[in-house]
Amino acid sequence: MSEAAVIPNVTTPEWELPSRGVVGMVCLIVAEAAIFTIFVVAYLYYVGKDRSGPTPREVLDLPIFTSVCLLSSSLTVHFAVAALHQARRGLCSLWLAATVLLGGIFLGGTAHEWYKLIVHDGLTIQTNLFGTTFYSLVGLHASHVIIGLIMLSLALIFSLNGSMTAKHTGRLEVLSLYWHFVDAVWVVVFTVVYILGR
Amino acid sequence: MAADAPVPAETAQTATTHSAPRRLVLDILNDWVTTVDHKKIGLMYIGYALVFLVVAGIQALLMRIQLSLPNNDFVSPQAFNSLFTMHGTTMVFFVGMPILFGFGNYLVPLMIGARDMAFPRLNAFSFWISAFGGILLYFSYFGASGLYGAGSAPDVGWFAYAPLTARVFSPGHSTDYWTLAILLSGIGSIGTALNIVATTICMRCPGMKLSRMPLLVWLYLVTSSLVFVAVSPLTAAQIMLMLDRYIGSHFFDTQAGGSAVLWMHFFWIFGHPEVYILILPAFAFANEIIPVFSRKAIFGYAAMVAASVGIGFISLSVWAHHMFTVGLGAGANTFFVLATMIISVPTGIKLFNWLATLWGGKIHFTASMMFAIGFLFQFLIAGLTGVMLSIAPFDWQLGNSYFVVAHFHYVLVGGILFMIFSAFYYWFPKMSGKMLSEKLGKWHFWIFLIGFHLTFDFMHVPGMLGMPRRIYTYEADRGWMIWNMIISSGAIFQAAGTLLFVYNMIWSYFKGPVAGPDPWDAWTLEWSTPSPPPAYNFAEIPSVASRRPLWDLKHPEDPDSNYE
């Protein structure tokens, strides 16, 4: 039976559909956003309900420098995509390297903050509700940063060894969408944890 | 190997007869395990779900035997707790979700004229991770004794309320298996949902505008979008529960100020949309099957799409009607009462549209259509008891009673399972190339219908008489015995009907009449392919000009495209 193609072939002009990579990433972002929402809700629900310290006001410092680094990495990854689109591979590698560096600084900042909280302030995930919700929310975000950094580093390696060319712009763009999402989540986490929560 | 060196004829012959069949089996197995074809993955989803349907059905039978007489000791209280937990968890996560995703996987690309899903390898990954979740859940029967030797299978109930799930109250590993199984199933569901959305948006054949998509595809689009926002909260809650159990955080630890009610919120933010995730594909089947067997185009296509999207949105704001008995306060109760009542409006629109499709049609009472019509009546009743329970004071009386159990089984069995059976009779010819026996199908329908009504109509009564759910036995003087006896006898009919269905599938697969590409004279693209369709689906990508491309093809003198 090969009557599969017997449908009248009235080809509609310009039948263009969205890129499946972008749609897939948007779906993933929606799902991830829902996961973050639940953690944020838990944070807000428990904020100020602790019977014992340390409290956020006592131990949290505003991580302004590292936040600026992370947010500006959104800009650099955008420049990397634009450079790849114009087939300027060297420039693309440079911007990717800058993105990885900025993300790395942010992660280092988080590591430093956690070290201080655990060693000097004695706050662990078991200490109280603040510890529970703080480490899980910030940790969930940090794990997303780590995954993003691994993927960005791979892209950087491919860019350096020449296997990523202008025809891969679409794929790098999908990765950049993920990175923008990670940055946007940080805006929410920063607001909730360091501004409202204090 | 044999091709390299010449082999004596005799040796070659024995070598062939010995090794050929074995290689064949391994080849077939290898083919199925490594496949990324949406049809094979769809069939694996369905087969996997059917196995678990039988397993969870047997669990239901065991519970019904236990409850058929007062003071019965057929199973121990501990075993009973495991039975209802495993029955609920299995039916929702490892029967309902996979069977619906299986049909979606199989049908969505065929109906939109695509050769595969948008991400075939993600599709295989999602299936195998869900399958692994189910196996992990059942491995708990052997592996969950844990340090304290307490319990084996999970016994915390399918919604696993805190603080029962805390380490102190659930020692051993049974709850860990439950959490991990749900987490894996959730990851698989999100992967497949992402795939279905991307396929629907990006893989449609030329001319298949959104306004021309078959309603089944529309409903799968809505249901998959709902998965992102409903299943993700459950995934988040499972992560929290695991953190609580493994590294001592306090999310749901009431002794350290954590909140048990927060778990309820998180669970039901998933739990109620989940009902719609399960019922929307059943609506999807009805949208394809009822028009074909009424020989009419669906009534109110645009209203159907709008109602589906409406249900998708409203279903996100009704979760706390599961929590009226918690005491949320008048404001919250009023909100959730009204939201719950409002969701019956788009659902009612759908029912009226199906009735209007039947109206004046030339109805063909095939087994598939009989199940669909059973669905219409039973889903209406299920919806009406739902509206009753949405009234908070009524819920205070009957919450957590057998009335609630009867209500949601009316939805899940009378609604969803009936439509799944209907879908099997309708699409089995496409999937296997053979027709299912209509005669056995009608026997299946009547036996199952009788069993269903014996069980679930009468289940409302002990609920109103005060019988709580999840009790493992009751005293003789309660006056519940006669009702429980009737309920349990109905379960036997349902089991018999299901056995007949399984027999019908096996018999028809080998002995049934050949189906041909289009046995129902239907109108959507999957019927333009051979049965079963080749791996590439369409030799040439079709293009469509209306919602019923095969009608246009069969009736060039009066195509739908003139009217849409």
Indicate the CATH topology of chain A.
Four Helix Bundle (Hemerythrin (Met), subunit A)
CATH class call of chain A:
Mainly Alpha
| Largest sheet: number of strands, sense, barrel closure of chain B | none
Number of helices of chain A: 6
Supply the helix-strand structural class of chain B: mainly alpha
Query: H/E order of the elements of chain A?
Result: HHHHHH
Which residue ranges of chain A are poorly predicted, with pLDDT under 50 across at least 5 consecutive positions?
1-6
Give the percentage of residues in beta strands of chain A.
under 5%
Return Rg of chain B in Å.
25 Å
Q: Which two chains touch over the largest interface?
A: A-B, 45 and 60 residues
| The CATH topology of chain B | Cytochrome C Oxidase, Chain A
Number of helices of chain B: 17
- Termini of chain A, distance in Å? 70 Å
- What structural category do the secondary elements of chain A indicate? mainly alpha
Instruction: Name the helicity range of chain B.
Output: 55-70%
Q: Would you count the extended β strands of chain A for me?
A: 0
Mean pLDDT of chain B: 92
